[in-house]
Amino acid sequence: MLFYNKRPGADIMYVVCNEHLEDAIEEFVEVYEQPPDIYELEQVSFTDWASPRRCNYCEKPPKYLVV
């Protein structure tokens, strides 16, 4: 389950565990042809967004936001 919008120009965002960080980076680079920004979820907060409780690739708690 990835967070994305299929509209042209829409951003793809991944919330992933340690194990799947490399997968998210590779997929981001494949789509955008540039490296993503990576944030530790514990270090960031947004007023209108709550982090999902699971990694986009598995059931583990997420650790990183890849955008």
Describe the structure.
- The protein is α+β, with helices and mostly antiparallel strands and 67 residues long.
- Helix content is 18%, strand content 19%.
- It is built from one helix and four strands, in the order E-E-H-E-E.
- The chain has a four-stranded antiparallel sheet with strand order 1-2-4-3, covered by helices on one side.
- A hairpin with a 7-residue loop joins strand 1 and strand 2.
- The longest helix has 12 residues.
- The protein is globular.
Give a quick summary of the entry.
A four-stranded antiparallel sheet has the order 1-2-4-3, with helices on one face.
Which geometry do the CA atoms define?
globular
Mean pLDDT: 85
The count of β-strands is: 4
Give the count of helical stretches: 1
Q: What percent of residues are in strands? A: 15-25%
Structural class: alpha+beta
Q: What is the element layout, followed by pairings?
A:
Elements: E1 3-4, E2 12-16, H1 21-32, E3 38-40, E4 64-66
Features:
single chain; 67 residues; alpha+beta; four-stranded antiparallel beta sheet; 4 strands; disordered N terminus
